[in-house]
Amino acid sequence: MTVAPPASYRRAAVPEAAIQLKRVAAGYDGTLAIDAVDLEVRSGEMVALVGANGSGKSTLLKTIVGLLRPRHGEVRVLGGEPQAARPRMSYLPQQEHVRWDFPLTVESVVLMGRIGRLGLGRPPRPADRRDAAAALARVDAEYLRRRPVTDLSGGERQRVLLARALFADPEILLLDEPATGVDPTTEEQLMAVLEEETARGRTVLVATHDLASVMAHFARVVCMNRGIVAQGDVSILRDDAVLRATYGGHRVEPNLMADEHHA
Ligand code: ADP
Ligand code: MG
Q1: Ligand 1: residue whose CA is nearest its atom 25
Q2: What whole-number distance in Å separates Cα of residue 209 and Cα of residue 212?
Q3: Whose CA is nearest to atom 23 of ligand 1?
Q4: How confident is the model over 139-181, as pLDDT tens digits?
Q5: Whose Cα sits closest to atom 5 in ligand 1?
Q6: What is the CATH number that goes with domain 16-248?
Q7: Three-state SS across the chain?
Q8: Within a 10 A sphere around the Cβ of 67, how many other Cβ atoms?
Q9: Are 61 and 90 in contact (CB under 8 A)?
Q10: CA gap 66, 145 in Å, rounded
Q11: How far, in Å, CA of 245 to CA of 263, rounded?
Q12: I need a labelling partner for 107 at 20 to 30 A (CA). Which of 30, 124, 199, 256 fits?
């Protein structure tokens, strides 16, 4: 048993991480998609999550947002439960999980970014519309403001979703593959905006497949393969052993190897 120091001492000595996971396991139905995840993201850090399809990147983000409850372990966001921190986070889901077949304008979609704070039902005020236009301008998408979202290209959709996330003015931005399916120019724009947001003190965690972009824009990377297999400065992506652990097939579980039915 450990004895906790007084809270005032803890705060002075170790600033609370923006995101902290301890031995977290999470998954769907009977199966675990991530296991034994220890992760700390400090305030104002820009961190990339990489890994093959199915490695658990989206699962990890959903667990941090509080959409998925951990099966084991502890998740703390901004010093409390994910649910309590929800209004202070913006989450951009993976594109294929977003429905685009509803008849809304781009502006309405951006305005929905603040629904949690405005309280449902309050009509937008001129200041809200100004802020929404400013958020769209940050991602060069102001010209889309009155367009129906059904008409947008993949790159335009990602810019609108990022504008919605920025409009919410969150302390933490969690983005699931914001650059997948967008052209290289848009990807560079998105990354530049994320770097600016980090410089302004926001905490940014991004799942991505683009390792070159990670090397160019991020300070720290977390490599996933059903759990975290490596994390550190982005230079670890030059290490063959790290890349093999991340992308070189599934980890072999010792308990499966010992099971005679799998021999
Ligand atoms: P990634 O984002 O790295 O591609 P995911 O976190 O989406 O990985 O998926 C991790 C594992 O969890 C995969 O095996 C995937 O099939 C499974 N999975 C993801 N979402 C669901 C779901 N809604 N129901 C059941 N299994 C899921
Ligand atoms: Mg995913």
Answers
A1: 28
A2: 9
A3: 28
A4: 999 999 999 999 998 889 999 999 999 999 999 999 999 998 8
A5: 56
A6: 3.40.50.300
A7: CCCCCCHHHHHHHCCCCCEEEEEEEEEECCEEEEEEEEEEECCCCEEEEECCCCCCHHHHHHHHHCCCCCCEEEEEECCECHHHHHHHEEEECCHHHCCCCCCCEHHHHHHHHHHHHHCCCCCCCHHHHHHHHHHHHHCCCHHHCCCEHHHCCHHHHHHHHHHHHHHCCCCEEEEECCCCCCCHHHHHHHHHHHHHHHHCCCEEEEECCCHHHHHHHCCEEEEECCCEEEEEEHHHHHCHHHHHHHHCCCCCCHHHHHCHHHC
A8: 15
A9: no
A10: 30
A11: 23
A12: 199
Chain segment 40-55, per-residue pLDDT in tens: 999 999 999 999 999 9
Render pLDDT for 63-85 as a digit per residue (tens, 0 to 9).
999 999 999 999 999 999 999 99
- CA of 234 from ligand 2 middle (Å) equals 20
Q: Is the pTM of this model over 0.85?
A: yes
| 8-30 exposure pattern, b = at least 16 Cβ within 10 A, e = fewer | eeeeeeeeebbbbbeebbbbeee
Determine contact, residues 63/34, Cβ cutoff 8 Å: yes
* One-letter amino acid for residue 87 of the chain: P
- Answer yes or no: is pLDDT of 250 > 80: no
Residue of 50, 59, 246 to mutate, ligand 1, most atoms within 8 A of C-beta: 59
The widest CA-to-CA distance across the chain, in whole angstroms, is: 68
Distance of CA 216 to the CA centre of its chain: 18
Tokens of 14: 């170790």
CA of 9 to the centre of ligand 2 (A): 39
Q: How many residues does the chain have?
A: 263
